[in-house]
Amino acid sequence: MSDISNNKFANGEASSANKPPNRAEINRANAQNSTGPRTEAGKQRSSLNALRHGLTGQTVVLPSDDLAAYKRHCQEFLDQYQPNNKLETHLTQTIADLSWRLNRIAAIETNMLTVGISEQSNSVDTENDPVRTAFAMAKAFREQSQALANLSMYEHRLSNRFDKALKQLHELQAERRNQVLFTMPKAVEVFQKHKAKGVPYNPIEDGFVFSERDIETYIQRQDRKNQVNRATQ
């Protein structure tokens, strides 16, 4: 009986020893031992890893970018499209950011070729400067063909997103202009009646998408337009 028990125990140990390791348990143990970057510099490098070339990361402005230039760039889009609500503002900002990244692609491509031409110039055996530059450029294109192809892929994706966001913004603003054209006069009429009676008025309660300030701005604009028309008659 003792020998049989000992054999069973030995077989059990062998079976346990041959059992494949539990990958999930190993992963959990490794995760507990991994603490990630501990220094501030390490944490900063880790946070910037996702930026890479600045074409697909969530952060639009890289540490090397001119923040003032970026703000001017965005303001130009805001001035051009004059967003009227939160969604229009979001789309305008998206368009500005995509444009900024598209400009970055052009800069990266120019810099890559400039460096490539400079590096390849010494390998071209000719005293003719235009020929040397042409040959160096051809070599630079050949050496950087994969990187340039990747840039072209990113440019195509960003351009598609830019066109989609711009189309959506145009559609939203066209819809808003139509609402102003067809429903604002009625909102003005109801607003003025309440104002004449000294009764507060909330346009949203009557289904209008305009605020009281929007209506007052529209009235002021129409008054100025009428004054100009009378002056020119």
User: What composes the largest sheet?
Assistant: none
Order of helices and strands: HHHHHHHH
Distance between the termini: 122 Å
**What is the number of helical segments per DSSP (H or I, 4+ residues)?**
8
Number of strands: 0
Q: What is the typical, i.e. mean, pLDDT?
A: 75
Which value, in Å, is the CA radius of gyration? 33 Å
Query: What percent of residues adopt helix (DSSP H or I)?
Result: over 70%
Strand content: under 5%
Low-confidence stretches: 1-17, 40-54
Topology (SSEs and partners):
Elements: H1 2-18, H2 23-33, H3 40-48, H4 67-81, H5 86-121, H6 129-143, H7 145-197, H8 212-232
Kindly list the characteristics that best describe this protein.
single chain; 233 residues; mainly alpha
Entry summary:
With 233 residues, the chain is mainly alpha-helical. It has helices at residues 2-18, 23-33, 40-48, 67-81, 86-121, 129-143, 145-197, 212-232.
How would you explain this protein's 3D organization?
By secondary structure, the chain is mostly helical. It folds into two domains: 2-48, no CATH class; 67-232, no CATH class. The chain is 76% helix and 0% strand. It is built from eight helices and no strands. It has helices at residues 2-18, 23-33, 40-48, 67-81, 86-121, 129-143, 145-197, 212-232. Helix 4 (67-81) crosses helix 5 (86-121), helix 5 runs antiparallel to helix 7 and helix 7 (145-197) crosses helix 8. The longest helix has 53 residues, at 145-197. The model is unreliable at 1-17 and 40-54 (pLDDT under 50).
